[in-house]
Amino acid sequence: MTKDQEDILNMYQSTDDVLQKPEHAPIWAANVPFDAAVTELEGNIDKIEEQRDIQGEDTTGVTDDKQNKRKALEDQTYTVGSIIVFYASTVKNRKLLEKVNFTRTELKEARDNELPGMSEQVHQEAVANAAAVLPYGLTGAMTTDLDTAKNDFVDFISKPRAAKVETSAATEQLPKLYTDTDTLLEERIDKGMELYRLSNSDFYTAYFNARIIVNSPTLKRALEIHFEDENGSALEHVKVLVNGSINRRSSSLGNIRVQDLAEGAHSFTASLPGYNPVSQNFNVIAGETTKLQVAMVRV
Predict the structure, then answer these.
(1) What pairing do the DSSP bridges indicate for beta strands 290-295 and 223-228?
(2) Quick count: other Cβ atoms within 10 Å of Cβ 94?
(3) What is the per-residue pLDDT for 257?
(4) What residues in the chain have per-residue pLDDT under 70?
(5) Could you give the CA distance from residue 75 to residue 59 in angstroms, rounded to a whole number?
(6) How buried is residue 115: exposed, middle or buried, by Cβ count under 10 Å (0-12/13-18/19+)?
(7) 108, 73 contact by CB (below 8 A)
(8) Integer Cα distance of 181 and 42 in angstroms
(9) Which DSSP state fits 221?
(10) Under DSSP, is residue 261 helix (H, G, I), strand (E, B) or coil?
(11) Structural domain boundaries of the chain?
């Protein structure tokens, strides 16, 4: 997400905060078309937050996991294969020896889609000759571990690419979400606010002040909170109220973010139907992001 997109999102959120203030919401609540537009605004903000979460996810960890699983498979294939080679050479079974005699270099240089086949070839011979190779130190547990390592690696082969594709898709979707939200504000909510220019001038002024895009000096966020349940699964749609005035809802990945909080002490409350509400104090240090992880407990 670019700095300009962050600044615009901050404006969207500030605008929604003004609309949702306890003293403002009753003003427009009975206006059905206006209420529908505000609901759509909140939905668009949620979608942007979700795409930002996807875009911001670090895919390095997925790639590292894949490489670790590949290395484990290479090592186990070589170890099991070496023991079978020892046995095959002893009994002068050249055909068996040649089937499993992979060097470390061959395993390391094999393509991702080739390595599982080489491993499976070794695994099949380990199973077929289980009794004969047992005295050489090849146990059933080692054979099972090799098969598990192969399956684990196969599961991970496409994950780094899939993660990058998902991140790229999120990047492509963001411009349309911003365009749709700008149109929603400019053609519907901004125009609808004219009903309140004279009758509720304070609300009108606060709304259009919030609509100004503030050019923030950096992309540094003051607060990030991740919400999860007792099992560690992300919780979406958690309603969060920061300092009694800033409204946020957690994304599908369980995250909320708030920019531009002053240095010092702050607080938030969080609620989600079916869970006990949470209240917590936190501190913000200038130029840093306070990161919190909150586990919510079911009622």
Answers:
(1) parallel
(2) 11
(3) 85
(4) 1, 54-64, 157-171, 216-221
(5) 25
(6) buried
(7) no
(8) 10
(9) -
(10) coil
(11) 1-216, 220-299
pTM tops 0.90, yes or no:
no
How many Cβ atoms from other residues are within 10 Å of residue 181's Cβ?
A: 22
For 29-60, what is each residue's pLDDT tens digit?
Answer: 999 999 999 999 999 998 888 877 766 554 44
Instruction: Please count the other Cβ atoms lying within 10 Å of the Cβ belonging to residue 263.
Output: 12
Whole-number Cα distances in Å, 152 to 98, 116, 123, 158: 26, 10, 15, 12
CB 241: neighbour CB atoms within 10 A? Answer: 17
Q: Are 137 and 60 in contact (CB under 8 A)?
A: no
Phi, psi of 269 (to 5 degrees): -125, 145
Rounded to an integer, what distance in angstroms lies between the CA atom of residue 72 and that of residue 83?
A: 17
Q: How far is CA 109 from the centre of its chain?
A: 32
Please tell me the distance from the alpha carbon of residue 146 to that of residue 75, in angstroms, as a whole number.
9
> Please, is 103 exposed, middle or buried when counting C-beta atoms within 10 Å of its C-beta (0-12, 13-18, 19+)?
exposed
The per-residue pLDDT for range 210-248, each reduced to its tens digit, is 999 877 665 456 888 999 998 888 898 899 999 988 888
State the Cα–Cα distance between residues 80 and 57, nearest whole angstrom: 37
Residues with Cβ within 8 Å of residue 87, at least 6 apart in sequence: 93, 96, 129, 132, 133, 136, 138
Helix 140-156 to helix 115-128 angle (10° resolution) is 160
Q: Look at the block and give the residue holding tokens 């990047």.
A: 171
Third-level CATH fold of 220-299:
Immunoglobulin-like (2.60.40)
User: Are 219 and 20 a contacting pair, CB within 8 Å?
Assistant: no
Phi, psi of 80 (to 5 degrees): -65, -45
User: How many angstroms from the chain centroid is the CA of residue 9?
Assistant: 19
Amino acid identity at 78: Y
Cα separation, 64 vs 73, in Å, equals: 14
